[in-house]
Design brief:
The chain is α+β, with helices and mostly antiparallel strands and 146 residues long. It has a single domain (4-141), classed as Histidine kinase-like ATPase, C-terminal domain (Heat Shock Protein 90, 2-Layer Sandwich). The chain has four helices and five strands, in the order βααββααββ. A five-stranded antiparallel sheet has the order 1-2-3-5-4. Strand 4 (124-129) and strand 5 form a beta hairpin. The N and C termini lie close together (12 Å). The relative contact order is 0.20.
Amino acid sequence: MRGVFEFCFPPGPEHLRMLRKALRERLARWRVGDDQIERALLVIDELVSNAIEHGAMNRTALDPLAVRAEIEGKDLLLELEDPEVPAAVVAELKRVLQGDAHATPPLDNERGRGLFLIATWLDRIEVLPLESGGMRLVGRIRGARA
């Protein structure tokens, strides 16, 4: 089964519920396993929440965020595109995710768990700068479909 799910929305938390519901329904239609659906929803929720919370200081035009999901063989590809992430932030995010994102953050630290969880839940993750500015974060969950 082949298909693409796309959901574009203004960067606000009020759209998360609709996104999760629509993505859950699509993944179920694609026969993605229940555990993998939950994993994908947690990843997308964390990515979008971070984009909304941490991206707020960089937003000027409120360009929409875009979430994309696609089945590739038995794998599930997940993408988040945020056109308003500064190049320095994209570079830092790329550095962290290639480096120590798998290191468990200290329990007394109030921040830093999101990237750790994303790096743990995804089998592969890439941060790609967009030519027009911003970034595309691409993740893979291997064996999401039986």
